[in-house]
Amino acid sequence: MSRSTVQESASYVYGIMPGDVEVDPEATGVGDPPAKIRLVRHGDIAALTSEIALDRPLGRPEDLFAHQRLLDEAAAEVPVLPLRFGAVVTDDEAVVEELLAPNHDAFRDALDDLEGRTEYIVKGRYVESVVIGEVLAENPEAARLRDDIRGKPEEATWDARIRLGELLGEGVAARRDADTEEIVGALAPLSAAVAVREPTHEQDAVHAAFLIETDRLEEFERAVEEFGERWAERVTVRLLGPLAPYDFVTTPYPEEG
Amino acid sequence: MTIVQPSAGGGGGGSSSGLADVIDTILDKGLVIDAFVRVSLVGIELLTIDVRVVVASVDTYLRFAEAANRLDLAQTGGKGLPEVVQDMTQGVGKAKTKGIAQGALDAAGDKLHDFLGDEEPEEEPRRRRRREG
């Protein structure tokens, strides 16, 4: 097949898994309408792919959900190496030739290491009024600025608001560091690996990924639940999972040939 | 505490928190295809809404300041700050869920609008969120 001609479609790649799996014939992925999922095998491993049209951009919320749902559902059953959203290769032959064949042993070993382990994410969000009250109570400059802006329009108090917001942001960040250290310190001994994520919201109290052995899952869930109860007044704790190990796959930098 | 099963996000469609969770996870985590595939790589245009917040930015400073302003206006009587904080804590503790705590904040926002009289209600601070840079 000529790769120099203009292509209308290509292969979207979701992730890599052991070759001895079957794909649900009803499974669908990204695209509109959602494309049928294919399993491309090579040796002991396989890639999940689907056909993707190249004449339109990719990234509707439905596409994002489809990518993660497929990988997470697979990860609940078998080890999976998830690819970052948006991986597109000319066709399934190229998936074999350039992705699976040259990296076969490394992928197989990585999948072996993931046997019986899945990712869970712990997200904690501060209760805004409580955390801001805490910072105001301990920071006299912030409390004074709060009095200065009280009931005044934003335009008239811009500088004071920026300074107040900065102080509050610093106070919340200090709490985030301390709370993250506390919960990660308690959960790390129950986990095979931990990856603390960057906060993606200014009221984040904790944002971290944990690689959990199936036989320690109950213990881990109980520990997270204890934090949820103990922190209930100031932090809303959520546990997301099981997920594919997005935070625990590392991209090698193959030697230039 | 909520345990979110992954399939809940997709089946229910795009609730904003579900979308934020997905964006946090699949846009910059996972294996990068470019590290493996060179010849047959196809560049496709990615148009994704990034709802993530730059945590230390003018937007977040203004939101924090406005939240402090609202907190103060929710105060009744001439209480000192420690008592206010305690009240808020108890209120949220009783509510137990974020939804109800959020309701309390919304109510405080209503008071702000009353206080400002006939001025246009301010734009909801959360709406101002946008990614910079």
From TrEMBL, chain A:
Kindly list the residue ranges recorded as spanning the membrane: none
* Gene Ontology CC annotation, any one: gas vesicle
Q: Which domain of life is it from?
A: Bacteria
Its annotated compartments are: Gas vesicle
One of the GO biological process terms: gas vesicle organization
Q: What keywords appear on the UniProt entry?
A: Gas vesicle
Alphabetized InterPro entries for the sequence: GvpL/GvpF
Q: Which family does it belong to?
A: Belongs to the gas vesicle GvpF/GvpL family.
The name on file for this protein is Gas vesicle protein GvpFL
Question: Which lineage?
Answer: Bacteria, Bacillati, Actinomycetota, Actinomycetes, Streptosporangiales
Automatic annotation (TrEMBL), chain B:
Q: Which domain of life is it from?
A: Bacteria
| A matching Pfam family | Gas_vesicle
Q: Which InterPro entries match?
A: Gas-vesicle_GvpA-like, Gas_vesicle_GvpA, GvpA, GvpA-like_CS
What are the protein's UniProt keywords? Gas vesicle
Q: Which residues form a coiled coil?
A: none
Query: Where is the stretch described as Disordered?
Result: 112-133
- Quaternary structure (record): The gas vesicle shell is 2 nm thick and consists of a single layer of this protein. It forms helical ribs nearly perpendicular to the long axis of the vesicle.
Q: What does this protein do?
A: Gas vesicles are hollow, gas filled proteinaceous nanostructures found in some microorganisms. During planktonic growth they allow positioning of the organism at a favorable depth for light or nutrient acquisition. GvpA forms the protein shell.
- Annotated protein name in UniProt: Gas vesicle protein A
Q: Origin organism of this chain? A: Streptosporangium saharense
